[in-house]
Structure to design on (43 residues):
C-alpha cells in the first residue's frame, strides 16, 4: 500500500495524482482546496 497525493479533482468524482493517475475516495473525503478539472471521456 502506498499513499497517493492528489493535485486536482477530476469531474467532481475522482482525484488526480501528480503521476496522472485517477483514484476514488468517498465524496465526504474530497478536499475543498484542490482545483477542479473536467473534460471529455478519455482525456
Amino acid at each position: 500500500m502506498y499513499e497517493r497525493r492528489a493535485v486536482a479533482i477530476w469531474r467532481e468524482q475522482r482525484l488526480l495524482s501528480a503521476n496522472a493517475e485517477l483514484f476514488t475516495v468517498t465524496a465526504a473525503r474530497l478536499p475543498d482546496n484542490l482545483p477542479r478539472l473536467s473534460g471529455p471521456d478519455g482525456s
Q: What stands out?
A: The first strand starts at residue 6 and ends at 10. The two ends are 27 Å apart (CA to CA).
